Amino acid sequence: MGSRLLVATRKGLFTFERARGGWRPTARAFLGDPVTMVLADPRDGACYAGLRHGHFGPKLHRSEDGVTWTEIGTPSFPEAAEGEERPSVDTIWSLEHGGVDRPGVLWLGTVPGALFRSEDRGDTWSLCESLWNQPNRPNWFGGGYDKPGIHSICVDPRDSRRLLVAVSCAGVWQTADDGLTWEQTAHGMEADYMPPELALDPDSQDPHRVVRCPVAPDRLWAQHHCGVFQSVNGGRQWTRVVLPGSSFGFAVAVHPRDPDTAWFVPAVKDEHRIPVDGRLVVARTRDGGATFDLLGDGLPQQDAYDLVYRHSLDVAEDGATLAFGSTTGNLWISESSGERWEIVSHHLPPVYAVRFA
Amino acid sequence: MAFLAFTPNLARHVQVPAGRWAGRTVAEVLREAFRLHPRARGYVLDDAGGLREHVTVFVNGHQITDRVHLAHPVSDDDEIYVMQALSGG
Fold it and tell me: Which single residue of A159, A166, A288, B30 could bond A207 by disulfide (Cβ 3.0 to 4.6 Å)?
C-alpha cells in the first residue's frame, strides 16, 4: 500500500502510480461522472467507488483489479410505514471496511445522515436502524450539504464491534455492540455558529472529519468547523488545539504509527474558504498539537485559491507519503512527511477524495 | 400496450430498449419494464419509488405532474418518454 493513489473527482476516478521520475496517471474510470467516495480494501485488494450521477442518483461499483468495474448494490432506505415519508440516499459520503477479522463487512455513510452495513462486499446493504432512529435524529442538520451526512467511520482495530461515526452536523456517535446501541460523544467540541447556550451541545457539533490512529486507537483527531480538536480517550472527550494562522479547514490525516503526528490544510473561515493570504500550506504537528509547522515548500505561496475537501488528504502506510487534491483540480504528493511537495496534476476536475492503495 | 423509451444517456449505464409494455398508468408501465430490466429502476426512481429529482416523464408530449405515484393514466396508443431534466447535470 502506498505506491498507488486513487483520486475521486467531479468528473471521474483517476489512478496514479509511483514510477521512475515521479507519479504518473495509469488508469481512469467513470469519465464524466461524479465520484464521491473511493475505498481500497486492504483485506482482499478490492476497490470500491461511490458515484453520484446528476440525474440517476448514487451508485456503487467494485473492482477486483482496479481497472474493470462492476455495479453492485446501492444502499437504499427500507419501506416506510403507511403515511411515513421514505427518504432516499443522495450521496455516498464515507466507506470503510468492517475490520480485518470480518472479511466482506463494509460500513457506508450517506447524505442524508444514515449508516449502512454490508456483509457481502457491497452486494447488498442494510440500514443501521438503531442510529437512524435516534430520537434526536430529526434535529440533525446539514453542513456542506443541505441535509446532514455521515462522513467519517472509524472502526476500532482492537474490537470491530466498536465503531465511531462523525456527522455534519450531529457530532460524534459511538457504538460498542456492533451498532445495536449508540452514544453521543462529541463532548468538549464547541460550535460558535450556535447560540451561546447551545455552543457545547454535542448534537450541534460539526466535525468536518475525524480520523483514528491505527496503533493507538484511543487517539483521534478532528477537524471541526470551529477549529481542531483531539481526543486521548477514544473520542469520549475532545480538547481544542489551536493552529497558527487558521484552525479552520476540512481535512485531517493522522500518522499510521504515531498518534502525535497529524496534518491539516487550513483555510480562511468561514464564507471565504480559501488559503490564508492566498498561501497554500499544510499544517503538521509532531508533538500532539503543542506546536505546528506550516509546510509550503512546493505549494503555491501566493494567489492560490485551492480548497481541500474533507476526504481529499491522505497519508500512506509508510507515514511519510502524503497526497492532497483541491477543488481547483490540483494534486500534490509529498514523500517527505510534507516537508516538500511535488505537483502531480494541475488539470484534474475538482477533487472529492484521495486514497492510497 | 403503451410505447416506452428512455433518454439515450441512460444507455451509458443500463440498456433498456424502447418497446411496448402493458399497464394502465405510467407507474404500471414502468413496473413492467423494470421487471425485465431491474437495474434500471434505481436510475429512474428514488428509494421511495418516485421519480428522481432530475428525471422527467412525458406522455404524448406532456410532462406528467404526479412525480410521486406516477398515476398518470395511459392507453395503448400513448407514447411515454423518460428523459433527464437539464437541471441535474
Answer: A166
